[in-house]
Amino acid sequence: FIRELFLWAILMNRSDLAMSICSRTTNPVVATLVASKIYHQAATQSRCITAERKLEYLKKEKEFGEHAAGIIDRCFQVDEEFALKLLTQESDVFFKYNALYLAREINSRPFLATKCIQKHLDTEWYGNINYNVYSYTNIMVNYY
């Protein structure tokens, strides 16, 4: 029921209500990114909207993206492991989406620029290597 109410609020252009419903969902990060995606699609795919309406939708897309970034940043400050799991956890309520997929799909720059995403990318890139232990000079000295 909460998902339907949330989607109704977005489609009726009641972003203030949708924003408050986000905090009541099981995965507020995915919920805010779903809202951001809907506003993104409305702004870019609709041919029948005015320029003012398009700017309004783009503004709301950015607001929801920044809200999602704020949530994941706060989670990351409190518990890094939980925040990293939250990025890739599929949401049963929101169509099996995960936060990372949605953020990449709509190119949510505020969300993609968070410390949590950077940590996730470092983990993906370096794996279990502790890249902070060795500096470049130590590696070069050991090589030669």
UniProtKB/TrEMBL annotation:
InterPro entries: TRPM (IPR050927), TRPM-like (IPR057366). This is TRPM-like domain-containing protein. One of its GO terms (molecular function) is monoatomic cation channel activity. Its main location: membrane. It is a multi-pass membrane protein. Residues 3-113 form the TRPM-like domain. GO terms for biological process: metal ion transport. It is found in: Membrane. Residues 1-20 form the signal peptide. The keyword Signal applies. Keywords: Membrane, Signal, Transmembrane, Transmembrane helix. The keyword Signal applies. GO terms for cellular component: plasma membrane.
